Amino acid sequence: MIYQTVIGLEVHLQLSTKTKAFCGCIIDFGRAPNTCVCPICLGFPGTLPVYNKEALNSAIKVALAFNCQIQEHTKFDRKNYFYPDLPKNYQISQYDLPLSRNGYLYIYRDNKPKRIGITRIHLEEDAGKLIHEDGQSLVDFNRAGIPLIEIVSEPDLFSPQEAFDYLTNLKSIIEYLDVSDCDMEKGSLRCDANISLRKAGSLELGVKTELKNMNSFKGVKDALSFEVGRQAELLDRGGDMVQETRLWDAEKGVTVSMRTKEGAKDYRYFPDPDLTRFHINQDMIERLRLKLPELPQEKLQRFMKEYSLSEYDAKILVSSKEDARFSEECIRIYPGKDKKLMVNWLIGPLLSEANSRKVKISELNITNDELISLIGFVERGEISGLSAKGVLSQMIDSGKSARELIIESNLLQVSDTEELSKIIESVILENTKSVDDFRSGKTNALMFLVGQVMKKSSGKANPKIVGQLLSRRLTDA
Amino acid sequence: MAIDNETIRHVAHLARIDLQAKELERLHVQLHEILGFIDKISNLNIEDVLPASHILPISNVLREDIPHTSLTPERALENAPSKKGNFFSVPKIIE
Ligand SMILES: [Zn+2]
Q1: What is this model's ipTM?
Q2: How many domains, chain A?
Q3: A8, A211, A244, A453: which has the highest count of C-beta atoms within 10 A?
Q4: Mutating which of A78, A95, A140, A276 best tests the B interface, going by the most B Cβ atoms within 10 A?
């Protein structure tokens, strides 16, 4: 049977404010356990939570960046459940009046945009951290009460790859906004996935499973791919899908059912009487909208226009905010005529250096000025592209300047015509057959002769100039 | 609105309260009465009344993102029934 995969994602994002959502305890992941706690975030009776203004501003910015409608009235609710990482036995979250609804973002396949709906973005707080030992579980509440937002997508993603692309674009937008670390390994971005299969062509959704415990975007993709296979096989056998939560085991590469004793979840949401409602007016929204930075999609369009880049090239450069800044700076201040040469170096050799070192372009040990200096040598024909790639690698390793390394390794190309002419004369004398071939119309022979000159100069001759000199010398005589 | 024993047991379980048979009987009567009061509301005309989520006429209470002094771990853990080092300790919750 042919099935269509239907995926919806829930992304939880830690906002990088200085202090927690409802109290002034600082957020610092390096601290010893239970040193960033107070009566409010420990849920002591009689304490009053008050929401962090900066967190609200950040959340509204995210909602605007994802084209959501900010709701005029919004409130906090209590989500009640028992778990030791939750000091109050409820999580402050939002239920029926979330901060924002009805947004979207685009993903791209073969350069075609696909719009992915965002159902809602709401405010909530993080729980503490548990460490399991023999016979006991230890609780650290430093993380309890850190402001989170949850971004819930529509079930608009039809393959694990689309889910991956959605996450990548989402992360890139959040990075541009500078409101969260977005680090899945550190837990500042967490993602749960709902996935179901339906008969191709059917409009009715199948029974879904909820996947948890993925700690990278690739993990999300792998878990979803596994689940597509598992569900298809089950459905083909005529088996009954049960709605359940499954945990991704990255080591074994399988999802495992999370057996829960409790029946259907019953969180008994109700408005948190400790917190007031929020009225968010148009004024406040417009003030924050003005503070939004240029977002990846806008930057992409501008790069294509301003620097005549192809969509492909521009997309590589804007995928990370820092890389976009570094690249734009390089292109802007590059004094040479050939801006395209700079672009090609950014998305070519520089990107592959970054990839092989598993860092971003902007994190490489090289300044704009040094990169520009190196490309200058190439554009002026003073060193070959091939040697320049080697120099680039050495620059990053040693921190030395391009000029220093080029002189040290004696890489300057010989463009001096007098010196080159001497080599050319001797090559002509030694290769009379090729010279005759060329003169009788076999133009290929010229390439052979250029090669001989290059060889004699130990690769340092400027091949373009050698070609010009040789053909002039052979046609004139 | 009537409430049955099954619902009372479910609610008690959600609140992690262990009910004795006698308590269940008493609660049945009490909850029945409470729900009876609530039923009265459905007989009122509340068309012009907005739902309330807060009893005071205040909104948009926010705080600046400024750190305060947190508790020391000694103080935070002072009343914990069980602790280990800087951690609160609870019976192991996963296998
Ligand atoms: Zn606190």
Answers
A1: 0.88
A2: 3
A3: A211
A4: A276
